[in-house]
Amino acid sequence: MLRIQQYQKVKSLAEAYELLQKNKNNQIIAGMLWLKMEDRTIPVGIDLSDLDLDKIIEDEKSFVIGANVTLRQLEVHQKLNLWTHDVMKDAIKDIVGVQFRNLATIGGSVFSRFGFSDILCALMCLKCEIVLYHGGKMDIVDFVNSDFQRDIITHIIIYKDHDKRCFICHRNSATDISALNLSVWQRGDEYLITVGARPQKAKQYSITGNNNEEIANKLKAQVECSGNMRASKEYREALSYGLCLKALNKIGEQ
Ligand SMILES: Cc1cc2nc3c(=O)[nH]c(=O)nc-3n(C[C@H](O)[C@H](O)[C@H](O)COP(=O)(O)OP(=O)(O)OC[C@H]3O[C@@H](n4cnc5c(N)ncnc54)[C@H](O)[C@@H]3O)c2cc1C
Fold this sequence. Notes:
Layout: E1 2-9, H1 13-22, E2 27-29, E3 40-47, E4 56-58, E5 62-66, H2 71-75, H3 78-83, H4 87-92, H5 98-101, H6 106-112, H7 118-123, E6 128-132, E7 136-139, H8 140-144, E8 153-159, E9 164-170, E10 180-187, E11 190-196, E12 203-207, H9 212-222, H10 233-252
Helix pairs in contact: 9-10
The protein binds flavin-adenine dinucleotide (FAD).
């Protein structure tokens, strides 16, 4: 059971950061969908909901997304999905159900850096930066590989460009987590292919090739997977080939 000894709705990020440093068990609380499943005591639960972090602001170059924006807001944001070839929508639409996605936040989803995360795999095929209160701006790939613990995500920035990209995943049954997820970012002749739920956290591979089959075969030869209750190592490797071909075909239609 989760026990929160003191609840603090902060008035500034500085106040939140100070509280976070005071005790290593103090935690930012966002949608609480993951936190509520944990068996632990949190001395101070820090609520950022008064800090105006629940908006998606579009400018000429980017979408600036507050950490408290919900997964549902991203899923149904027409302009964001238009610019990103529906990558965010495709990564989010199968996560549990609408009620869940109305509460779960992008900040909580990104900060947790889960191996199975569809959201991280999708963000890695976008030009995307994570903004940390103390650590400043960081490329999404560097953030995924970092072990930042005592900082606050304030925003996520997705930059606009005209590159082609696609997200795709395989679930053994509806609402389960992905057995494998994969995103492709076509940057000129290079394909940046991210594979997540390997089951380890998402890893990006840079691949070139003359046709879709060659690229998918190269990915299958390089991808590092292992087995768990959802899929064996061999099944994941086979999935990486199949999902990659599907994604490349989708990109061909863009
Ligand atoms: C049953 C279930 C099924 C799921 N299925 C999927 C799935 O299929 N695909 C997928 O991608 N994800 C899935 N998830 C993960 C889910 O998206 C995240 O657990 C959830 O969105 C976390 O967001 P939250 O707002 O509820 O965070 P919380 O539970 O409130 O917080 C999670 C962690 O992030 C920290 N945190 C929150 N906000 C910030 C911030 N701004 N800065 C720093 N730290 C912060 C908290 O302190 C805590 O440690 C699933 C989760 C559950 C519980």
